[in-house]
Amino acid sequence: MRQKPKILVIDIETSPILAHVWNLWDQNIALNQIQNDWHLLAFAAKWLGDPPNKTIYMDQRHSKNIEDDKKLLETIWNLLDSAEILLTHNGKKFDLKKLNARFILNNFKPVANIKHIDTYQLARKHFGFTNNKLEYLTSKLCTKYKKQSHKAFPGFELWRACLAGNKQAWIEMEKYNKMDVLSLEELYQKIAPWDNTINFNLYREDNEIICNCGSMNIQKRGFGYTKLGKFQQYQCKDCGSWTRNRKSLFTQKKKESLHV
After folding, report:
1. pTM, two decimal places
2. pLDDT tens-digit profile of 121-140?
């Protein structure tokens, strides 16, 4: 089996902040108005390429104290510690920072500095979609898994019902959270050929040239040029992604003749 990096796909769900307010619009909430601060409610995760039935899920439905999320945090910390690359959607701004906040508040050590692929940022970087939310992107690009809306408990009602201990709401939350991870994985596989930020061959010990999609069906396709060099280009015939050689094809004499 060809060696691939361990890529952890993850999505977290947090509780809302419960606060006392005087009005509905344009509120500035003071710290002494907060009744209950936020915490983790649930998370879903899987290793990229694993079958759907290997999706990991945990939540707070059976916790004696729903605000005590240490067991969830411990499991997530160990998963992150085992990963070489993290895959999220808007996780650089939300999921990872929220996790770090809960980690430090619960006396966990920092997680190793692993590479992070954020499909929200990839969508903004390479495309001009009407919307970059996971729901929109998966509805347009994914065929097998799409982000679900929680119809039985629309909008905020799902979180309210889970906090109230509604069993059906927790079942809905599990389906919703797992589908976020499965649809995120499919979305990444759709847009990955457009991005070459991380070279997966760095994580392999042999010298075979393999595309990030896992294919060896790579062909030479013309040349790429920089100010100081000419490089052989390659394209994967399966996913379509492009790469190039790092060694310039120019002779030393040609390099010396170039003026910058």
Report:
1. 0.89
2. 999 999 999 999 999 999 99
> Measured between alpha carbons, how far is 66 from 42 in angstroms, rounded to an integer?
11
Length of the chain: 260
Which residue do the tokens 């042999």 mark?
A: 206
| Contacts with 78 (C-beta within 8 Å, 6 or more apart), sequence order | none
Please tell me the distance from the alpha carbon of residue 126 to that of residue 149, in angstroms, as a whole number.
Answer: 26
The answer to whether the beta carbons of residues 238 and 211 sit under 8 Å apart is yes
Residues of the chain below pLDDT 50: 1
Residue type, 201: N
> Residue 220: which of 239, 251, 244, 240 has the closest Cα?
244
Is 220:203 a contact under the CB 8 Å cutoff? no
Angle at CA of residue 113, ends 112 and 114, nearest 5°: 100
- DSSP H helices in the chain: 70-82, 95-105, 119-126, 134-141, 157-163, 167-191, 252-257
pLDDT at residue 199, rounded to an integer: 83
Q: Which residue carries 């903004």 as its tokens?
A: 124
